[in-house]
From TrEMBL:
<dbReference type="InterPro" id="IPR027417">
    <property type="entry name" value="P-loop_NTPase"/>
</dbReference>
<dbReference type="InterPro" id="IPR003439">
    <property type="entry name" value="ABC_transporter-like_ATP-bd"/>
</dbReference>
<keyword id="KW-0547">Nucleotide-binding</keyword>
<dbReference type="InterPro" id="IPR003593">
    <property type="entry name" value="AAA+_ATPase"/>
</dbReference>
<keyword id="KW-0813">Transport</keyword>
<dbReference type="GO" id="GO:0005524">
    <property type="term" value="F:ATP binding"/>
</dbReference>
<feature type="domain" description="ABC transporter">
    <location>
        <begin position="4"/>
        <end position="229"/>
    </location>
</feature>
<protein>
    <submittedName>
        <fullName>ABC transporter ATP-binding protein</fullName>
    </submittedName>
</protein>
<dbReference type="Pfam" id="PF00005">
    <property type="entry name" value="ABC_tran"/>
</dbReference>
<dbReference type="InterPro" id="IPR051782">
    <property type="entry name" value="ABC_Transporter_VariousFunc"/>
</dbReference>
<keyword id="KW-0067">ATP-binding</keyword>
Length: 293
């Protein structure tokens, strides 16, 4: 089952395309990490998926329907936007009452249990909470609406390391307990490594690579060996990035078969290696030889 499908998806602001030609299928039941440089289109994609924006081109389908097309569709999607927005003038308890009023699937017991466990004072105004507490309140509301898909746009960017860890631990506990699908946007690859089993790299408003994390790490390799022209590589080794010195070539490839050439030393990548390679080489094409001194 596909929880999000985009075909030729694009969003244009005046003369600038924030997202262009986006083709994407996200399977249900995964925690998908959405990563890319600033301006790549991550927030635009999530806002389109939540129904906060409408496409300029192409189509997007979420949980089997058009985002924002009606109350039933809105109930299927939870969205925690950047800066984990809450209402400063409302208390924690008032946030829960508002959530119950607006969401037909609202799980009041879940919301109150989380508030109690997190030690949030129901009488406290949200504007007086710490950044970590506000993030947890926003996550509580997103979870208590019992969505099929939870969209999180940089929810931990402003949190300290301890608050980030607690937020992500709570997220994983909720995923395990309720079996929902999640798309989590973050610049922090270490956070993605901790919680995500599926990866989307978005660069220059287009999806550059997508797949299950383990499959991507298994199929991407670092090859190091004597300097050579990359045009001599087999057709099933697709170059993502490369660097050269006078004597040595180092190349990151996506390989469709085992590398049998004995002149190469083959190494595995970390998730950060993989993400940075695609972000630093947006076209993922075979680069011309360049000597690095």
């Amino acid at each position: 089952m596909t929880v999000l499908r985009a075909q030729g998806l694009g969003k244009k602001y005046k003369r600038r395309w924030a997202l262009s030609g986006c083709a994407l299928d996200i399977p249900a039941g995964h925690v998908s990490g959405l990563v890319g440089p600033n301006g790549a289109g991550k927030s635009t994609l999530l806002n389109l998926a939540a129904g906060m924006l409408t496409p300029t081109a192409g189509t997007i389908e979420v949980c089997g329907g058009v985002p924002g097309s009606g109350p039933g569709q809105l109930a299927k999607v939870g969205f925690v936007a950047q800066n984990t927005p809450v209402y400063p003038g409302l208390t924690v308890a008032e946030h829960l009452r508002l959530g119950a009023h607006l969401n037909p699937r609202w799980d009041d017991a879940l919301a109150r249990d989380r508030v109690d466990r997190l030690g949030l004072d129901p009488a406290q105004h949200a504007g007086k909470l710490s950044g970590g507490q506000r993030a947890q309140l926003a996550l509580t509301i997103g979870l208590a609406k019992r969505p099929e898909l939870l969209l999180l746009d940089e929810p931990v960017a402003a949190l300290d390391p301890l608050a980030r860890r607690e937020f992500l631990a709570d997220l994983m506990e909720a995923v395990a307990e309720h079996g929902l699908s999640v798309v989590l946007s973050s610049h922090l690859v270490s956070d993605l490594e901790r919680v995500c089993d599926h990866l989307i790299v978005l660069v220059d408003s287009q999806v550059r690579v997508v797949g299950e994390v383990e499959d991507l790490l298994d199929s991407h390799l670092r090859l190091t060996g004597p300097r050579r022209d990359l045009d001599t590589l087999p057709a099933d080794q697709h170059v993502v990035s490369a660097s050269h010195t006078d004597r040595q070539t180092t190349v990151l490839v996506r390989a469709e078969a085992p590398v049998l050439d004995p002149t190469w030393t083959v190494g595995r990548l970390t998730l950060e290696d993989l993400v940075l390679a695609y972000m630093s080489n947006p076209t993922a094409a075979r680069p011309a030889l360049e000597v690095l001194r």
